[in-house]
Amino acid sequence: MTTRELTLPPTFDPRRLPGRLGTMWTWICLVWLLVGPRIPLLGASNSSIRIEDVLLLSLFVVVVPRWSLVRALPAYMPGIGIVFWVSMVAVVAAALEGKISFVSGVLYGARPMEYWVIYPALLLAFQASVPSGEKTFVGILRTVTALQVGVAGLQYLGLSIGFSKFSYSRGAGLTAGPYELGAVCAALGCYWVGTRRWGWAALSLAGLLLSASRISLAAFIAGALVIVLWRAFGKRMHPSTTVSPPKALRVISFTLAIMAGIAFSPAITTSVAKSVGNRIDNTSLVRSWLISGNEAGVVGTVQTSAQYLEVAYNSISQNVNYDSLGQSGDASNLVRFFRWHLLLNSVDTPQAVVLGQGPSFAGPSVDGSFLRIFVEAGFLGLIAWGILFGRIVKRSEPWLIAVVFTILIGGLFIDLLFAMRPMILIWAFIAHSRASESSRSIGVAQPSTEVRLSS
User: Fold this and answer.
1) Residue 44: Cβ within 10 Å count
2) pLDDT surpassing 80 at residue 452
3) What is the C-alpha to C-alpha distance for residues 329 and 350, in angstroms, rounded to an integer?
4) Euclidean distance between CA atoms 50 and 57, whole angstroms
5) From residue 455, how far is each of 4, 26, 140, 210, 443 by CA, in Å?
6) Are 33 and 87 in contact (CB under 8 A)?
7) CB of 90 within 8 A of CB of 377?
8) Cβ distance 212 to 262 under 8 Å?
9) Is 417 helix (H, G, I), strand (E, B) or coil?
10) By the 8 A CB rule, do 416 and 422 touch?
11) Which among 77, 171, 266, 414 could disulfide-bond with 152, CB atoms 3.0 to 4.6 Å apart, if both were Cys?
């Protein structure tokens, strides 16, 4: 039996921490939200209430009665509130002008706050399960990595299993589609690289290749580069990371792990390489942008969300000429940019520039988080998100900065900031990093109340 003494702020009352049942429920919710099925329960204004909404609501029930306790934690980091309130102001302004449905706007605008609740819930779980919380969390990440990549491998073998909204010509794992698997694997890969768990890093890279997601591959490379540069310039990782083996052993083991991770079979290796290569070869951004701009100009300016959805989704085949790309072109970028032009053209008043057209205006998918933020919440929305991410990366560990890089880079072409699994994972990583930092520095808090924790 070991005993640790933690020094906590006087406002922190450990007797109010969630009990064993509440802590276990938080871990169960985390696992379900990262790999469980998304089951619709009922429709609600062009959207739906799903089982994950119920789980996230249950975490609010855990957090809200202990809100003063959460704020007293040294790991607590405010910031999501400004994003939420800017979105609500945009909802009211747009709904009054008849651009969006008020209920739909509230549901869309509250989504970032809904996903955020995993952060304070995990802070409480980590604090209530010292020192076993970190071990539990890492075990969950290993399970998630193995399940996501394993299922993606089976999908490449021809098994139509999982929850993807798309065909299984690309690996989707247990996510809503290849784009989401790529984002999840890029974030997991940077964490495993940052904490020197090379086998798991290789497995995440295998999942990334199976997804054939170009932007997520670029995001992973950028995130890994952050870690490499941090170390190259003498920045040491925090003591919580694993001890690094000799350099030669690291290189050999990492190389072997990559080979083992991606070589499910010769057929899969060849198929993955061909898929990624073809998608990169067929990318012609400038050409797709110019063609889609001309076609969006013919349609004119959309004034409401209903008009936009009709043009961008219901009658997309009538408004986009796929033959204009020729034999070699990227149809996905043509459609994406056509919708982008429509959305940008709709922001044609000073109020729309400042407050946007309201959450939900852009419909289910924009294929670009920052464009969605600007169109739906204006420049104020971009500023609010900028403040939030500025607070996240401030004094963060290198691996967390790398993970955030993956979500920001991926967000250029994917709605990652509004996608459940990637954002749940990001907030979980932030909670893990802040809780680890807090446990290292909490002993110097002044004034203090001593709490004895045994395991």
Assistant:
1) 13
2) no
3) 36
4) 11
5) 9, 20, 20, 41, 18
6) no
7) yes
8) no
9) helix
10) yes
11) 171
